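Issue: copy button drops trailing tokens. Both records pasted manually instead:
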Amino acid sequence: MIWLVAGTKDARVIAGKLLAKGAGRILVSTATEYGGKLFNDERIEVIDKKLEFEDMKLLIDGKGVDVIVDASHPYAVNVSNNVMKAAEDLNIKYFRFERKMLDYEGAKRFSSLDKIVRYIGDTYKNENILSTLGSNNLEDIKSVSDGNNLYIRILPTVSSVEKAEKLGFMAGKIIAVQGPFSKNLNKVILEDYNIKVLITKESGETGGEAEKIEACLEAGTEILVLERPEISYVNCFDDVDELVGNVLGI
């Protein structure tokens, strides 16, 4: 059985192409119930919870997994490292899908979120800042609101909104919407909220990142990019069709 580790929009595309090319049933794991609901094909078995290293090894044994396709988020370092280690320990095939990089010309790049927070604190006061890092980084980014008006764009799920509220974010600072977004919609948000600075991840050319950057350039919004972590993947592909062909041996 093929185990697809999902964490991005790309995973749904990969799953569809695997099935279309005759993969049979596949196993998909997501970290959240919301992510699991995005896979609604009867040929897909979904596990919607976070898996630790030992959980992964038990899953591989219990489900008869012989191939792993890692389409987890580029910033899910622990997930990818654990999946690669489990594949190596159990001597099964591992393939990685990694999005192509965008040209972030004109943006300021940072190797850590702490550096972004310090830069904003040193540079801006009483300005409107928009974080598009999602709900996982809310605790790390919250201190930006001490000297500025911090808005956060997160998924419109109960868990995400509740987490934001528990951390003290007021409803007026929460933009809970499902992407990806067009350039025009991004630009409307930037202009209506008078956003001076946008914080984003170096996620790659799919998932609406290009449209976000283009909107910032047109609106005159400064772009702060959290650089993608460097991981030494094996069998890494940035083209879905090429990945699927290698996974299925066709």
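Record 2 (pasted manually too):
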Amino acid sequence: MSKTVPFKTVQDYFEAQPEKTKKALQELKQCILNIAPNATELLNYNIPAYALIEGGKREQQIMIAGYKTHVGFYPHPTTIEKFDSELIDFKKGKGSVQFPLNKPLPKALIENMVAYRMKLLTK
């Protein structure tokens, strides 16, 4: 997939992914929507994003992205910090975590992370 191709919709983004990546992205999306059913789906930086509160800007979104060997989950640095010990088996960045495609997604953990982020945004 070329990073320069602008996608029109999240569905277009998903359809452009290899099958394994697409399946993992759909599972990530479902984890987000299980906790934040009213999240608004959009593209931000040409990748899928979910605004957790109405009109949510970048700081109020969770983003996801597909790659050849993993999916990226971008909940926010505060969330990564909070769940650091539970993410020990995964490659992390300041505000991101990579879930490899050759292992099942830790759905309960992902949903806990989304719930934590929602709680911070709706205080």
